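Batch manifest, entry 17 of 40.
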Amino acid sequence: MPNEKDSQGLPSPVSRPPDDIAGDLVRLMPRDLVFVTRFLGESQFRLQSHFQDFIRAELAADGVTAETHPMIHLFIENHAILLRDFVFSGVSLSRQFRVEEIERLTGDTTSVMRVDIWDQLKSHIETGEKQFRSQAGTLPGLLAAFEQPPGPMPGNEK
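Output type: structure tokens
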């Protein structure tokens, strides 16, 4: 399907192999890759439960209970999740480590971690491309909304 660049005589974009893009990303790792703290499992449950209890108590103090508002548990759960994610995101943003720091901490002097990350990047890029190709049959319908409407474009009438 022609686009604005095609009509200007520019060459069509050429897809690069997953090896190349994975290599580019690994070269950018010292600048762009950070390791962050992430709480999982029971920690998430405990913080979310804390906020559910907190919100329930605050609402009850204002006379809002499950008896007066039978669906309030949905509000409480949703807001507890938002507060939990807010707390964990704040901690994650304040605890970032660069790849060099992680390599030094783990004693990875041969950059094995970078090779492992390259392998994972390449594999996931290939998986993403394969997934896109497998859905190619649905693209015409989705892309129809982006087609140029028939007739002259407004402002281009001659």
